[in-house]
């Protein structure tokens, strides 16, 4: 890794915690560990890790409690590691402020890819720039001009606002509720068909293969994600 990033693993199953720790140390991460919500809050405040990997089912409570507490004072990336397959649980964690989730069992390569995506998101947000590029699409925020290759693309104000929200959260899973609230407002949070329509418009205009998108991705039953 080019930078010395650190990660806090919050997992109460010891063999999983040790397996993750060993794998991440081998990849150059500085690793901290704990097994409870209460300890995780202390470790996050004192260690100030670059990222947290968070199990939801912990010995002294639900991991969502940790997310809720931390989001009052920090925006560090939180990736949820969960054995829960209930989509409502994942959505609840994301709505509270988690940045991504992985359902157990998962492979280390997938986890590392998700972690790299979050680090890139941090690096992008910390770099002052008027432009954003994904695939062959370039967005100039100073002029609101969008190019796909050499062709200028016109977006409606709503399409542009939705794209801007996805760019602001690049690499992060955005729930339907989060996007509806940010783009259309509180009166539309129960209207997911708006998102489906406008995401379809963005894919038609910006993806090379709209029916097989590579950047504007659907997280089934949860929301959407923009990846570079």
From TrEMBL:
It comes from the Bacteria. The modification 4-aspartylphosphate is found at residue 55. The keyword tRNA processing does not apply. The keyword Phosphoprotein applies. GO terms for cellular component: cytosol; protein-DNA complex. Keywords: DNA-binding, Phosphoprotein. Residues 129-228 form the OmpR/PhoB-type domain. SMART domains: REC, Trans_reg_C. GO terms for molecular function: phosphorelay response regulator activity; transcription cis-regulatory region binding. SUPFAM superfamilies: C-terminal effector domain of the bipartite response regulators, CheY-like. Residues 6-119 form the Response regulatory domain. Residues 129-228 bind DNA. It holds the Pfam family Trans_reg_C. GO terms for biological process: regulation of DNA-templated transcription. PANTHER family: KDP OPERON TRANSCRIPTIONAL REGULATORY PROTEIN KDPE, REGULATOR OF RPOS. This is Response regulator. It comes from Entomomonas moraniae.
């Amino acid at each position: 890794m080019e930078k010395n990033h650190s990660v806090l693993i919050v997992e109460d199953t010891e063999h999983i915690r040790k397996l993750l720790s060993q794998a991440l140390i081998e990849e150059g991460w500085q690793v901290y560990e704990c097994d409870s919500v209460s300890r995780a809050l202390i470790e996050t405040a004192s260690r100030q890790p670059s990222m947290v990997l968070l199990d939801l089912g912990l010995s002294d409570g639900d991991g969502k409690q940790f997310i809720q507490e931390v989001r009052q004072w920090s925006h560090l990336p939180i990736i949820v590691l969960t054995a829960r397959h209930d989509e409502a649980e994942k959505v609840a964690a994301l709505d509270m402020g988690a940045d991504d989730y992985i359902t157990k069992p998962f492979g280390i390569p997938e986890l590392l890819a998700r972690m790299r995506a979050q680090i890139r998101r941090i690096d992008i947000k910390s770099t002052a720039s008027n432009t954003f590029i994904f695939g062959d699409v370039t967005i100039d925020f100073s002029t609101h001009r969008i190019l796909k290759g050499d062709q200028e693309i016109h977006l409606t104000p709503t399409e542009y606002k939705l794209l801007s929200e996805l760019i602001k959260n690049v690499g992060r899973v955005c729930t339907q509720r989060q996007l509806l609230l940010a783009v259309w407002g509180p009166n539309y949070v129960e209207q997911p068909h708006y998102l489906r329509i406008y995401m379809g418009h963005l894919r038609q205009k910006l993806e090379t293969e709209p029916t097989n998108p590579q950047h504007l991705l659907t997280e089934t039953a949860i929301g959407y994600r923009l990846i570079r």
